[in-house]
Write a structure and sequence with these properties.
Helices cover about 20% and strands about 45% of the residues. By secondary structure, it is α+β, with helices and mostly antiparallel strands. Strand 5 and strand 6 form a beta hairpin.
């Protein structure tokens, strides 16, 4: 379930929270405000009693971290991330994630459609669900195969990341921002 919290003495928080089957509660948080001291980077954090602490940090786009200059950390260990933003085919644009001997493929079915995280015999699909006016779009996830807390943590934390560049349409719509980002990167 999406949520938003604003307390005057703290930075506002936004994100998603809910229950994940036998794994219990999970919360994914990010700060929706632009913070100049972060040098254009943004972070999303996942927490829950049965999940490894996960954080995703990337160049801020559309008010969220993106796949550019991205870092994924699970339980204090870094994952390797790789994707080809210039590829034309959806399969070639997918995000490749390597973590502790596991190899994942994360892809988007299209703008506003399902996103899929897959590795040997495991497939986690996150789909946009119904829209709730006060909260936003609810997400529905399904897992096939023996998915564990690490698999689910990766799929869930990526729900609060701007992954539009994984689709050709999303890349085309974001290309003016990519050009500005290119010049921004050159000035750092």
């Amino acid at each position: 379930m999406p949520y938003s919290i604003s307390i005057r003495k703290e930075l506002p928080k936004a994100g998603i929270e809910g229950k994940v089957g036998d794994f219990g509660s999970v919360t994914v948080e990010r700060c929706p405000l632009y913070r100049p001291l972060e040098k254009g980077m943004d972070t999303v954090r996942l927490s829950g009693p049965a999940f490894p602490e996960a954080s995703f940090r990337g160049k801020r786009r559309s008010g969220r971290p993106s796949l550019f200059k991205a870092e994924l950390t699970l339980g204090g260990r870094h994952a390797e991330l790789r994707f080809n933003a210039r590829a034309l085919r959806k399969e070639d644009r997918a995000l490749h994630i390597a973590y502790e001997g596991r190899k994942y493929l994360y892809s988007a079915e299209g703008l506003g459609k399902a996103k899929v995280l897959a590795r040997g015999g495991i497939r986690i699909t996150m789909e946009p669900g119904r829209f709730i006016p006060s909260a936003g779009t609810v997400r529905a996830g399904t897992a096939t195969g023996p998915a564990d807390a690490v698999d689910l943590a990766i799929a869930i934390v990526l729900e609060e990341v701007d992954t539009d560049v994984l689709t050709l349409g999303g890349a085309a719509l974001s290309s003016p921002f990519a050009l500005m980002q290119h010049f921004s990167d050159k000035s750092e």
